[in-house]
């Protein structure tokens, strides 16, 4: 639910707004154990941290602050899966870091199965999962080194997301590459 200036719900255009500095951010620490080293600026030597204190403020409405316990309560007994490339993996890491702080040690775990990984919030019976599928469709190696992109088939990847309650896809980044994927 978006809040308007007059306390009446209204449609909000999230694409129109500005970045505002907010001292109460970030919503999770850069020491979150689920962040990849490659995306952890502080671990990689960045001396400042003010870049983490910016949030998006749409014009004419406000986005409520994320509440991990409310989110997990709404997602109780659900599977959430993010499917895509490294950009989507970053989103998975961020979402996991947003919720993991409210879960006691020993009541959360990560499991791995082929190209997937899943964060489990055991007390909520909720999983936040990631499946590596940069093109979503199948890319198979045929004779020699030639790769064939099967635009009509997602079966190899789809087997991982069967039974998921919420599914988020990302793949646009890979369709414009001209290097190794273009063969």
Automatic annotation (TrEMBL):
InterPro entries for the chain: TBL (IPR029962), TBL_C (IPR026057), TBL_N (IPR025846)
Signal peptide: none
Superkingdom, taxonomy of origin: Eukaryota
GO cellular component, as recorded: Golgi apparatus; membrane
Residue ranges of domain Trichome birefringence-like C-terminal in the record: 63-179
Membrane topology: Single-pass membrane protein
Subcellular location: Membrane
Pfam family, one: PC-Esterase
Predominant location category: membrane
Domain Trichome birefringence-like N-terminal: 10-62
A GO molecular-function annotation: O-acetyltransferase activity
Keywords, sorted A to Z: Membrane, Signal-anchor, Transmembrane, Transmembrane helix
Family stated for the protein in its record: Belongs to the PC-esterase family. TBL subfamily.
PANTHER family cross-referenced by the UniProt entry: PROTEIN TRICHOME BIREFRINGENCE-LIKE 36 (PTHR32285:SF155), PROTEIN TRICHOME BIREFRINGENCE-LIKE 9-RELATED (PTHR32285)
Name of the featured protein: Trichome birefringence-like N-terminal domain-containing protein
